[in-house]
Structures are given as structure tokens and as C-alpha cells.
Fold this sequence. Notes:
Blueprint: H1 8-33, H2 44-64, E1 69-72, H3 84-102, H4 117-125, E2 136-144, H5 146-151, E3 156-163, E4 166-178, H6 191-196, E5 200-207, E6 212-216, E7 223-224, E8 240-242, H7 251-261, E9 268-269, H8 274-280, E10 286-289, H9 305-313, E11 316-319, E12 340-344, H10 348-361
Parallel strand pairs: 1-2, 8-9, 8-10
Antiparallel strand pairs: 2-3, 3-4, 4-5, 5-6, 6-7, 10-12, 11-12
Helix pairs in contact: 1-2, 1-3, 2-3, 2-4, 7-10, 8-9
The structure holds 3'-phosphate-adenosine-5'-phosphate sulfate and magnesium ion (3 copies).
One magnesium ion is lined by residues 73, 141, 143-144, 146.
EC number: 3.1.3.7
GO molecular function, one term: metal ion binding
Enzyme class: hydrolase
Amino acid sequence: MTSSNKWKREEEVAINAVLRASLTTSQVFQQLVASSSMTKSDKSPVTVGDFSAQAIVNSILAREFPDDAIVGEEDADDLRSEVEDKQQLKRKVLQLANEGLTRDVEGQNTLSKTLEEEEVLKAIDRGNHAGGIKGRMWTLDPIDGTKGFLRGGQYAVCLGLIVDGKVELGVMGCPNLPVDKAAAKPKEGDFDEVKKRTDLGVIFVAKRGQGAFQRSLTDPTLRPISLRDISAASLASASFCESVESGHSSHGTNSRIAQLLGITAPSVRMDSQAKYASVSRGDGDIYLRLPVGDGSYIEKIWDHAAGSLLLEEAGGTVSDIRGRPLDFGLGRTLTANKGVVAAHKAVHAKVIEAVAKALEEEGRGHL
Length: 367
Ligand SMILES: Nc1ncnc2c1ncn2[C@@H]1O[C@H](COP(=O)(O)OS(=O)(=O)O)[C@@H](OP(=O)(O)O)[C@H]1O
Ligand SMILES: [Mg+2]
Ligand SMILES: [Mg+2]
Ligand SMILES: [Mg+2]
């Protein structure tokens, strides 16, 4: 097998699955989130979207690669409840998953027959694998950035293939990101803008050793992407990409790190692994995800698998706050790591130095 053929079939299937799931989450957004009937505190649309997207991706993976394990964020326990609300949720998920699996998407993987309720629940539960160092497994975050999804901001459908603990393939759907990286991102909370714009929706693809690419939801042509070329000398011209939620990443520490590196540009805040994608195509230069508080939060593999490979293949280095590589072979979580620091290869070590200094100053040098 030549290197460019490696993971070819997996890539085709993963793109089609992520594309279908992205179309379905967009549909949920349009029909449920952006509809006037939703109250601000109503989280149910994201739940419908999470389950439907996981059902779609897992059904396709189960059919194409029946022996592969899946580590998915969601499980179907809630949908098996007899409570009427959950029964309603289950009916909606069944309908959306079947629509997503039976529509023609680039002539591939289209189901000719709809799935029964139990088949959909089983597909979702295929995501229950414990992870680990041996063999092939997929990891799926059906909607990463659930808060972004509800705000009409950025979210991503993220699928990675991990083989013997290493991410080999990453595919990420970002339905609300402009295809053109120079175009303005939709304003958060402006549901009408997201509904109206026809230039939104990107799929990112990376295979280990074979580069990073993007395509639109409608045109299958893959175009190469890369990080902005930045040297240690020009680090001051860089910008950060960080979480929207201060509970997920320490904004205060990031400001101090910017100061230490001489960076003055304001940080770009964005939900989800769209941060990895954004930096991968040169819109923002450094992705910082510093632990908050005592650093007890342990990151999940599905929150980083696809994004980290994309950024590495686009010319970057991804590590935790101490410069250790992310270890995807330890189960469902990144137990050996704390936080994430990602940047161009040429400046990554300098950023790690500044991170260590900032944490030391805060009395969090032990993290
Ligand atoms: N305390 C804490 N620290 C770090 N990370 C956390 C924390 N709590 C949750 N999560 C995970 O963050 C995922 C979303 O990450 P984002 O970078 O999109 O966060 S943010 O919404 O922009 O703040 C989110 O993924 P989704 O649940 O798929 O949205 C969570 O897995
Ligand atoms: Mg997530
Ligand atoms: Mg999620
Ligand atoms: Mg979640």
C-alpha cells in the first residue's frame, strides 16, 4: 500500500459519516434552536442533535467496519427511559437518524431501509468502548461545543481513528464556520445570520503523515491548509485562540502568557475543536487550553483526537501544558495530560516556557 492510499477507505467513510451528521445537526439547529419557540434555558435541542449525530456516525461505522471499537461521548441510557419526555426525545432521534442515513449524500453509504428503534439505540451504545492502547478504535464527539451550538456559534462533529494509541485519521465537521477563512464568522446569537448565510460549513480532514485539508459541505474537493508561518522572532505578531467558557480554560493565565510573549492582539474566542481547525488554517496562531483552578479536570479523548492530528498535519506541535504529547492510549480520557498547548513547530517550545512561568507565578507550578 502506498502511503497516500493508507486509510483511504476509512477516510471516505469518515467524511461521509461526518458530513451526514453535520447536515443533521444543522437541520436541528435550524428547526429547533433558531426557532422562536425555544427558551434560553432549554437544552433539549442539543440533546436531540448529540444523539442523532452519534446514531448516524456509529451506524455507518458499524456497517463498514464491524470489528472496530468506538469511544463515543454519548450513550443511550436516557433514551431507554419510560418517562414520556424521554420517549418523545427517542422518537425525534429515531426520525432524524433515519432521515440522515437515508438521504443521498454524495452517492455513498445511503441506507435503503430505515432502522428500527432498537437498532438506533444499539448504534448509539456502540460508543461505550473503554479505549486503550491496543487495536483500532474510533472516537466520536457528535457535537463538540454544545454551548456554541445553542448560541449559534461554533461547534464541531469530531471523529478520529486511533490505532494502537495513535491518532491516524481525523475528520471534523464545522457547520457554522465560513469556508473562506478570511470571511467573518457569524455573530454569536444572530440565528438569522446562520440561517441565511450560504458560505458556512467546512469539513477538515487529516491523515498522519499526509497533510491537512479542508472542503466545503457541498464540494468534495479537498484543499490543503497550513498554519501561518511564524518564527520565534515574529511571535509578538501572533494571536491566541481560546475557549469561550472561562470554566473550560483559564483566560486570566492566558493574558499573562500573552504579555510574557509580547503578544498584543486580542484573543479569538471560539467554542469547540473549531479552535484547532481555525489555527490549522492560519486564523489564529496558538491554541491555549489551560486548566482552571486545581487542574482536576481530565480531558476526554474525543475532545482532542481529530483536532490535534489536524493541527499537527498543518505544521504544528500539540502537547499538554508541560510539553508532553497527548496520550490517546490510556482509555476514554487523557489521564497523563493536563490542558493543551498547540502552536507552530517553530514557536511551541517558547510558548511552553511562558506557560510554565505564568503558572509558577500563580502558585500553580505543580500542575
Ligand atoms: N471544566 C472543564 N474543563 C475543560 N473542558 C471541559 C470542562 N467541562 C467540560 N469540558 C469540555 O469542554 C468541551 C467544550 O470545549 P470548548 O473548548 O468548546 O469549551 S467552550 O465551550 O468554548 O468553553 C465540552 O465538550 P462538549 O460536551 O462536547 O461540548 C466538554 O467535554
Ligand atoms: Mg466535546
Ligand atoms: Mg459533545
Ligand atoms: Mg458534553
